[in-house]
Design a protein that fits this description.
Blueprint (H helix, E strand, L loop, with lengths): L13 H8 L3 H22 L1 H13 L4 E9 L19 H11 L2 H11 L5 H6 L6 H13 L8 H15 E5 L5 E8 L2 H59 L10 H35 L8 H4 L2 H5 L1 H24 L4 H92 L5 E5 L12 H26 L6 H8 L3 E6 L33 H4 L4 H16 L7 E6 L6 H11 L7 E5 L7 H5 L7 H6 L9 E3 L4 E4 L10 H5 L2 H13 L2 E5 L18 E7 L5 H10 L1 H5 L1 E9 L1 H7 L1 H7 L13
Parallel strand pairs: 5-12, 6-10, 6-11, 7-9, 7-10, 11-12
Antiparallel strand pairs: 1-3, 1-4, 2-3, 8-9
Helix pairs in contact: 2-15, 2-26, 3-15, 5-8, 5-9, 9-14, 10-14, 13-14, 18-19, 26-27
Length: 770
């Protein structure tokens, strides 16, 4: 029976998740150490692989050395031809990035290559073929045999290859937020690395100086041509002003412009004020008209209060006050006397009269607003006519003055441009005589003491760390995919039932050489259980072993279960074949015989019997013959003289199909009732739950079930599915045993209980296995 878990169903993995969340720190630490103990071999097997690859990389890679030089940019002294010099903010990264792009450009690299004749250097010629790494080296060795000898390359192809490979060795970066640029160059020779870093820095300084000189010279020539052109334009502009004044008899006067222009300015200001007055009058008129046009005008409406004149009108304010008082009384009387009461109707009549009076007052205000609007429009029209007449006169009289102002403005512009260019031209000529450089070297490169790459210690550290990460990743993957039962705690959490015992794994030849085993000689038709199979007699031949002690724990649980329910007929099953249920059945039956108990073991695995070939290989009749009535039960029972164990085999002359119906038949029920009366224990070896339904057919015949799970092999999902499909078996489940347990490995999965099972001190109590 299921005892305290009878009402529970088979649970899923979420129970484990909740249990892990409720673990204490000590328990969690034990789980972590258990994971490391279980999977440390996987980690140890994976770690050497990345380290070995790193070692191959270090042995086959040519070491590189890096020389470093530093230059500083003097951005405050840049040439400013068209504006005053300014100091560039160091935070402006675009300035520094532009100079870095110059250092990394192909044209700059080509100039360095030509100056140092790098196309004759074997190191750079080989790098132009694709680099000096492991892959390129291997490709160079294989290429002649696969593609044939490489054709000779021209000088331009070699140079172009070096130009392409040059940026891979050159590193240019800004130092912090300063104007300093660090130039780093890598080479297989430390002296060569320092030489090339200094060459790049020197080349950049010279290139910037030459570029500055060329810029100044080009700007000076252009400015001289432009000054000659401006000089001619200034002279022409001055002559045009003088000629125009003479042609139109214009004499310069002291003071402001014409009187007509002043009148236009004054009229324009007055007209703007008049137009604003018209708009304001129109807005007031439209607003009040809109209020009066509304179909349901309410004197209490805030719209009436929005009209300025209504606020200052004593009549309207008094009428509105009366209206609000009547409205309050009407609301009170309507609630007290009803909506149609005569007093309420009279109040509404008074309210209607007040509304008409307010409307009449508002209409008078509308009439006043209309009069103001007409007056404002008339004033605006008069001002517009006066302004139009003044503008017409001004256009006629001031045309000559306007043309003169345009000519004078053009002449002033040409004079200003000419003076500005003359000043910058003088500055440019001075700078051309002694140009200032905008970059200088502050640190020259020296031969490095150590290699830049590959760094042995860092490479090995990364490889070791990567190996550990990969090893732990694979170990974690193994742990996640290990969906099998390993501990009693797992059984109790997943299946919600008791794990009665952890039965250790015994080898197939265990007990084969035991001196207590005597080969049985079959004489005539005697039905004596075969005694020369050491595996099935291990519990008798090794009574002080852990295996025998675990079987005793199962027997004790069966006997204790008799207090609440009769447990004479015990069915033993599993979810899958080959989990050891038959061995557990035989061992349990043999351990129940001491003390004079009458025990019978029945092989009810009708599809694939395993007990009968082991214990009664020469049996010709068995359970099927008893159920069909062709034989008596006493004539087919086999016995063991040493233990008084009875055994009812099954003999199938052909493959049976309807085995579930046979086990659920009335004949099977009657047989078990007779055996229940004759024996103290009836141990029934049933078929597995997953492949066939035979075990489910015995739920009306068997008192309790013992479920066998193979340790470390049977999937949790398979067991859950098997028990959920056989709900009657689960409800009468006495408990679960984990079979074939590797006691030595158990401590890696269940640290506290594993040490409990695997304790050398147990030899004091007669344990024969360690």
């Amino acid at each position: 029976m299921l005892q305290t878990y009878q009402t529970q169903s088979v649970r899923g993995e979420h129970d484990n998740v909740s249990s892990v969340a409720q673990m204490s720190s000590a328990e969690l630490l034990a789980v972590v150490f258990g994971f490391i103990r279980r999977r440390f071999l996987t980690v140890l097997a994976v770690v050497p692989l990345p380290i070995g690859l790193a070692a191959v990389y270090l042995l086959t890679t040519t070491p590189l050395y890096e020389g470093t030089a530093k230059i500083i940019l003097n951005t405050g002294n840049k040439l400013q031809v068209f504006q005053q010099p300014t100091i560039v903010d160091p935070g402006n990264a675009a300035v520094i990035d532009s100079e870095i792009e110059v250092l990394q450009s192909d044209n700059f690299a080509l100039s360095i290559i030509k100056n140092l004749r790098l196309n004759d250097d074997p190191e750079f010629v080989s790098s132009s073929l694709g680099g000096g790494g492991l892959l390129s080296h291997l490709f160079g060795l294989v290429r002649p045999y696969v593609f044939g000898p490489a054709p000779p390359r021209s000088e331009s192809e070699i140079t172009q290859g070096i130009v392409s490979a040059f940026p891979q060795r050159l590193t240019v970066a800004r130092v912090g937020m300063t104007y300093v640029i660090a130039i780093q160059f890598k080479s297989t020779n430390p002296n060569r690395a320092a030489e090339l870093a200094n060459a790049v820095a020197d080349g950049y300084v010279v290139d910037r100086l030459e570029a500055r000189y060329q810029t100044i010279r080009t700007a000076t020539a252009w400015m001289q041509d432009r000054m000659n052109e401006l000089r001619s334009q200034v002279s022409a502009a001055d002559r045009a002003v003088i000629d125009y004044k003479a042609a139109n008899n214009i004499v310069d006067t002291k003071g402001g412009g014409p009187i007509n222009d002043q009148n236009i300015t004054a009229l324009n200001a007055v007209l703007i004020k008049a137009r604003a007055d018209v708009v304001e009058a129109k807005a007031r008129l439209d607003r009040l008209t809109q209020i009066l046009d509304s179909s349901n005008l309410n004197p209490a409406d805030t719209k009436i209060g929005a009209v300025t004149d209504s606020l200052h009108n004593e009549i309207i304010n008094k009428l509105r006050t009366q209206y609000l008082d009547l409205a309050q009384r009407e609301a009170i009387f309507s609630v007290r006397y009803g909506h149609d009461h005569l007093a309420v109707v009279n109040i509404r009549t008074q309210m209607a009269g007040i509304s008409h009076s307010i409307v009449d007052e508002l209409k008078q205000i509308v009439a006043a607003y209309g009069s103001d609007y007409d007056i404002a429009k008339a004033r605006q029209s008069s001002l517009e006519k006066s302004l139009a007449a003044s503008v017409t006169g001004s256009q006629t009289t001031s045309k000559a003055a306007i043309e003169l102002r345009q000519l004078e403005s053009a002449a002033q512009t040409y004079h200003a441009l000419y003076d500005n260019f003359q000043q910058h031209y003088t500055e440019a000529v001075q700078q051309q005589s002694l140009p200032e450089n905008n970059a200088r070297i502050i640190t020259r490169a020296t031969p490095p003491e150590g290699r830049y790459s590959p760094k042995v210690l860092r490479t090995l550290e990364i490889a070791a760390f990567g190996g550990l990460a990969l090893g732990f990743g694979l170990a974690l993957l193994q742990e996640i995919s290990d969906r099998v039962f390993r501990t009693a705690r797992q059984v109790e959490a997943q299946l919600r039932t008791e794990c009665m015992a952890l039965i250790p794994l015994i080898k197939p030849n265990a007990g084969a050489s035991s001196p207590s085993i005597k080969p049985h000689l079959d004489v005539g038709t005697s039905r004596i259980i075969r005694q020369n199979d050491g595996l099935f007699r291990y519990v008798i031949d090794s009574p002080l072993s852990r295996f025998a002690e675990s079987i005793r724990a199962v027997k004790v649980a069966i006997d204790l279960g008799n207090v609440a329910k009769s447990n004479k007929v015990i069915g033993i099953t599993s979810s899958m074949p080959n989990e050891g249920k038959s061995l557990i059945s035989a061992s349990l039956a043999q351990l129940c015989t001491p003390g004079g108990a009458r025990v019978i073991l029945i092989d009810c695995d009708l599809r694939l019997p395993s007990l009968s070939p082991k214990l009664a290989p020469k049996a010709t009749k068995g359970l099927i013959d008893v159920l069909t009535g062709s034989s008596d039960v006493d004539s087919v029972i086999w016995t063991d003289p040493s233990t008084n164990l009875s055994f009812l085999p099954v003999v199938a002359k052909s493959r049976l199909t309807h085995t579930g119906e046979i086990l659920a038949s009335d004949a099977m029920k009657q047989l078990l009732q007779r055996l229940r009366a004759r024996y103290d224990y009836v141990i029934v070896d049933l078929s597995p739950l997953a492949p066939v339904i035979d075990a489910r057919a015995t739920t009306r015949l068997v008192d309790s079930y013992l479920f066998v799970i193979e340790w470390g092999k049977t999937k949790i999902g398979v067991v859950e599915h098997a028990l959920s499909a056989a709900n009657e078996v689960y409800e009468n489940l006495l408990g679960v045993v984990l079979n074939k347990v590797d006691i030595k490995l158990l401590s890696r999965y269940d640290s506290d209980r594993g040490e409990y099972y695997y304790n050398p001190l147990y030899t004091r109590y007669g344990y024969t296995d360690s």
